[in-house]
Amino acid sequence: MHKGLQERYMYRICVFYSHGPHFRKVLLSLRKSYPESHIAALLPPGYPSAVIRELVDTYEFTQYKQYRATQIGALLNLRKQIRKNTPDLFIVMFDSNRLRLLGSLSGVRERYCITQRGHWKHLHITPVRQIIRSTSNSLIGFLQFHRVRLHINRSVKVSSQAKKQ
Amino acid sequence: MRLAFVDSLFSWPPNGGADVDLYHVAKELKRHGHEVHLFGLDEPGSPERGLFEPSELPFAAAHVEISKGRRGAEKTAAAFYTEIVKFAPDVVLVCDGFFLKPYLVHALSEYPLLCRFYAHELVCHRDILRFKDNAPCANHYLSTPDVCRKCAFELLGPEIRRGTPSAWLREYLHARAYAPTYYQRQLEAFSLIDIAITYNEDMAASLAPWCRNTHVIPGGVDLEAFTFSRCPVRPTQDKKIILMAGRAEDPAKGLSVLLEAGNQLAEQRSDYIIQATLPEDTQGPDWFQAVGWRSHEEMKTLYSQSDICVVPSIWEEPFGLVALEAMASGRPVCVSKVGGLQNIVRHMETGFCFKRSDAAELAKQLSILLDNWELRQRMGAAGRLRAETFYTWESIVEDHYQPLLARVGNLQKSTAN
Predict the structure, then answer these.
(1) Burial label, B299 (beta-carbon count in 10 A; 0-12, 13-18, 19+)
(2) Domain-located, residue A102
(3) What is the number of alpha carbons within 13 Å of residue B278 lying toward its C-beta?
(4) Do B149 and A51 touch (CB under 8 A)?
(5) A120 with A2: CB under 8 angstroms?
(6) Which domain holds residue A27?
(7) Are both A111 and A146 inside the same structural domain?
């Protein structure tokens, strides 16, 4: 549990599924820590809900097995599904730009990532800062990509010239 | 002896076989009277490494902290060096790591160096597998650097472009592994290693032209954790469980071969179910069940509930810890004849070996085992005996590491003289 959270408080928790090994483990620990809380799970289509049924109060399927941060429609649909549960705690399995953006769009006050090792990580960031961060990541990635490509092409060229000689 | 273990990926509970190997080897060496100290990497925010609590380990350990602004490969290696110098080791064992290894070897070259290769790291820049287009790859970074550089970039390029790199890619970029200078650095690093340790002869042969000494040391199994149980006796209507444990989602692990064998079995019988450690939402035929990703602890139960274990790897599996764990648990194991797997399992004695990707042969072997409880029981017991005889961590350290450390000690003395 994160130190900013109250013990045994009756939260309304929304847990967003990600393809990872610890989804069920997270639900188990949440149920143990907050037995009185309302836990809702958002699952991808096809997820066998039987394996988590006893751990959550409600669950709902999203339309998306995968989506990108640039798919505005998908983000808005997911936002709607999250807000429907009126949660005061939004939990994801990984810390990624996409999930941070989704979290901030959802408008839920407390947003956390619970890692595979059970550590709680605060995901507070405004949508504007998140967009700036994502853009700078993409820009750095773009520059690095071309730098690496240049190096590789140059070395291939040099060695093919050496072979010819 | 004072032994420094350097591992930039170590996590405990383990993320994979390399962590398990290091943990038990370090623990056993400590039991033999050596002073052991593990130096792991602490990379803030990384879910992939450095996730261990030093106080929970049975040997001394510490994190080498790398702040965000100091993530260059030279700086990381220098940070390790600064910490290790304080420990003043007699020998340094460079364990798991990706592209940082040559930098670490250079930084620590004043000490006698043992370097453990857990898979095909450094020989393949794409990943640790040396596996491409569903088949083992014949290329080798040190022989065909340009081909391997291009191949790695084909795979890693899109991830670089996204700007949110994984640990593998972060090391690739920080170490500038794409540059020709890295090739030179790696060649020099290999010549500085006193002994390169691999899991099998093929891996040793692939390193031999560049390393002074290579040595093969298999992995081991914790027999107290993986206890023997008899194969379940099931009523006729109950389905027998064929288990595939490990990273089944990795195509190199050969789940497709097992599913094909399952299809062929389904034409003749329905008294089995194939379980694989995949996310619970994985879809499959009626006779297939994804049991979720399980922790190292939970795997013991899974083995004891199973009837047969299968390791159908397509890549050159360096060792195959899951096969050994299944044997220690008393289960017959069907493995493909690749890498270290074929050395662990004795054909017709502790299980069956089949040709890589040969689903028909695997289906036949599974059918024989499904029909015969006595055979399953006999092979399972033989597997346990083999694990007890050759693969306990006590015997691995006693038979391999102790003589190796003595050899390194002698090397040191002769150099000093």
Answers:
(1) buried
(2) yes
(3) 21
(4) no
(5) yes
(6) 12-122
(7) no
Q: How many domains does chain A have?
A: 2
* CATH number of residue A37's parent domain: 3.40.50.2000
Q: What is the mean pLDDT of chain A?
A: 83
Q: Is B69 on the interface with A (CB under 8 A)?
A: no
Q: Do A115 and A160 fall into the same domain?
A: no
Cβ–Cβ gap A152/B162 under 8 Å: no
pLDDT mean across residues, chain B: 89
Query: What are the CA-CA distances from residue A120 to residues A9, A90, A113, B81 (Å)?
Result: 17, 12, 6, 32
Smallest CA–CA separation between A87 and chain B, in Å? 25
- Which residue among B149, B173, B281 places its CB closest to the CB of A48? B281
Instruction: Give B147's Cβ-side CA count (13 Å radius).
Output: 12
Q: What is the DSSP string of B62-116?
A: EEEE--GGG-SHHHHHHHHHHHHHHH--SEEEE-S-STTHHHHHHHTTTS-EEEE
Distance CA B299, CA B302 (A): 5
Q: Which residue has the higher pLDDT, A18 or B369?
A: B369
Are B214 and B196 a contacting pair, CB within 8 Å?
yes
Same domain, A84 and A132: no
Q: Is residue A1 in some structural domain?
A: no
What is the per-residue pLDDT across B305-329, written as a single tens digit (0 to 9) for each? 999 999 999 988 888 899 999 999 9
Q: Does a structural domain hold residue A45?
A: yes
Instruction: Tell me the chain B residues in contact with residue A151 when contact means C-beta distances shorter than 8 Å.
Output: 176, 178-180
ipTM of the complex: 0.77
Q: Which residue has the higher pLDDT, B259 or A35?
A: B259
Q: Are A46 and B292 within 8 A, CB to CB?
A: no
Instruction: Please give the model's pTM, rounded to 2 decimal places.
Output: 0.82
Q: Give the model confidence (pLDDT) of B186-242 as tens digits.
A: 999 999 999 999 998 888 998 999 998 899 999 999 998 899 999 888 888 889 999
Q: Is A145 within 8 Å of B157 when comparing Cβ atoms?
A: yes
Domain co-membership, A91 together with A37: yes
**Amino acid at residue number B167:** A
Question: Could you tell me if A89 and A135 lie in one domain?
Answer: no
- Tell me if B161 and A145 make a contact (CB, 8 A cut-off): yes
Shared-domain flag, residues A85 and A40? yes
Chain B, 32 to 51: residues with Cβ < 8 Å from chain A are: 45, 47, 51
Spatial distance between the Cα atoms of B192 and B174, rounded to a whole number of angstroms: 22
Chain A nearest C-alpha distance from B11 (Å): 10
**Do A72 and A136 have their domain in common?**
no
Gap between the terminal Cα atoms of chain B: 19
Residues A107 and A148 in one domain: no
Residue A136 lies in a domain: yes
User: Who among A19, A97, A155 is closest to B279 (CB)?
Assistant: A19
Chain B residues closer than 8 Å to A144 by CB: 160, 163, 173
What's the whole-number mean pLDDT along residues B136-155?
Answer: 90
CB contact under 8 A, A47 and B280: yes
Q: Are strands B135-136 and B131-132 parallel, antiparallel or unpaired?
A: antiparallel
Query: What pLDDT sits at residue B249?
Result: 85
Q: How far is A139 from chain B (nearest CA, A)?
A: 7
